[in-house]
Amino acid sequence: MAAKAQRWVQHFGPVRAGALVGVVLAGGEGRRMGPGVLKPLRPLGGRPMVAHVVERLRPQVMDLVVVANDPLPGVRALKVPVIADPPDIQRAAAREGRRLGPLAGVLAGMEWTRKHHPHAGWILTAPADAPFLPLDLTVRLCGLMHVPEPDILMVRHGGRREHALAVWSVKLAGDLRRALLEEGVRRVDAFAERYVLAELAWPGGGAPFLNVNTPADLSAAADHLKKRGLAPARPRSRR
Question: What distance in Å separates the CA atoms of residue 195 and residue 151, rounded to the nearest whole number?
């Protein structure tokens, strides 16, 4: 199936699969990037880095939302909703003097999806600092969602589990809220491993899941973009 999906992408463009809602996690503090422009808005190829993530993921999902705790004016031109962590999660973060990590963004995406797409059972999360996401990501992930379905499906690449790149059942929203607010759970693994967790081992190396965390990473991403001549993903025309 993977080879077939790859051939389709090469000839026709991004593949949309199933009733998935995309959730771009842009709420991190990005301390390793240093002071100045927020990490999701750092320029890459003349556009904010988050724009690359949105434009590669949007054609593959039924709808898309960005979760961010800081104003992201550069995202307005992308015409996607931008939401923050739920208010009670923000209050908990204020009490702790730190943000609660990617699980808070996952919860925000689940609750937004349940409100706006009540018949969608799954979200696909992706970090705002992964500008080279594969254009056949969703179809490969959905190909692994067999019966019995896992509650969470994560990508594994280069021997490492990509915690922020995963498919999540929105049925976990209530459990996740309790874990964050009542149990103090902050690590993605600590929550995910309570449930039926599966992995998609992505073949090969390269930069499909490159995380841009430092200025050096950003420079490497710019070099990769220039070398490969990568363009933003565009949906196929529908006739």
Answer: 6
What is the rounded distance in angstroms from the CA atom of residue 199 to the CA atom of residue 153?
A: 5
State the pTM of this model. 0.85
Distance from C-alpha of 181 to C-alpha of 2, rounded to nearest angstrom: 39
Handedness of CA 92, 97, 99, 101 (dihedral sign): negative
Q: Domain 2-228: what homologous superfamily?
A: Spore Coat Polysaccharide Biosynthesis Protein SpsA; Chain A (3.90.550.10)
Between CA 155 and CA 150 the distance in angstroms is 13
Q: 225 and 44 in contact (C-beta within 8 Å)?
A: yes
Helical spans, DSSP H, in the chain: 2-12, 49-57, 87-96, 102-116, 137-143, 173-181, 188-192, 215-228
pLDDT tens-digit map of 75-127: 878 899 999 999 999 999 999 998 899 999 999 999 999 999 999 999 999 99
Q: Are strands 160-169 and 122-127 parallel, antiparallel or unpaired?
A: antiparallel
Buried-state track 22-42, b at ≥16 Cβ within 10 A, e below 16: bbbbbbbebeebeeeebbbbb
